[in-house]
Design goal:
20 strands; globular; five-stranded mixed β-sheet; Elongation Factor Tu (Ef-tu), domain 3; 3 domains; five-stranded parallel β-sheet; 18% helix; Rossmann fold; alpha/beta; Ubiquitin-like (UB roll)
Length: 333
Amino acid sequence: MRSKLEWRAARVLVIETPAEDVRAVTFAVEDLRSSFDPGSHTNIKVMINGEPAIRTYTVLPSEPGTLKIAVKLHPNSRGGSAFVWTLKPGDETEMTEPENRFELSWRASHYLLVAGGIGITPIYGMAKALATRGQSVRLIYGARSIEQMAFASELRDLLGDRIETFSQEDGQAFDLAGEFAALPPDGEAYLCGPHGLLETARNLWRESGRPMSRLRFEVFGDSGRFAEESFQVHVPRREKIVAVRADQTMLDALVEAGIDMIYDCRRGECGLCAVNIIEASAPLDHRDVFFSTEERREKAKMCACVSRAVGGTITIDTGYREDSHSATLRAPT
């Protein structure tokens, strides 16, 4: 179960390469609303191993009637980025009207924007919107190398000395504790990047005593702890054992196997797809931003849309119950 998606026919107009291993694709989209807020995302229909699937990407600032996305070709791709990299002008697919779960508040006296790698995609739009409105803003942007920093040149032109870049190749790193300490009391931070960056940011922000409501973040990709592996999911209530491929999420595998699930964001943020873990014969690779570090250590629940087992078999309860009168979807307890 998820929010209703409004699908639109889409055709590739332009292909660009704004950074090493990053492809930007602009689509002409039929009957598209005229505008959307920075931080919005769209769903796109892709083909993976000959089968239809849906992937979600941030929408970059786009001209009316178009949607532009930027996708990094990930070495552990589940197929979405590989599909986008096969597109060429004239190719057709379908995309949804953008929706936003990573919104700017427009209430702060100063905004700190933090981007790691391809996490620049929502931050780029935020930086442009804040700068256009004359808001106080600072952007810190890091990647493995300068060549992998998409849109860095445009952002330097836009922000001047309000942007600072960091290259791991040159031994540079964020000083998040110092950046947070420099924020005014009503300042806010917006982050998008790898799982490890966001975990560090959440812990430092909590330690600073600042309100958690003033830290906003969006996660992508894997946790960096384990490579993608296939594994099995045992669902005793349905008397099924479901195989999850290395290029597939547990949620997708369960749904394809006819297991009823409740879900929405597919990005490890809302927690609706969380399942109860009864037993696990392998380590768990938590990739969500919904559960706390303590909750993950308990190994009682995991988000099916992004988290995985590292091989082996896990036994779960999905939380779905069907009484004698009607089928009802419930979040796991």
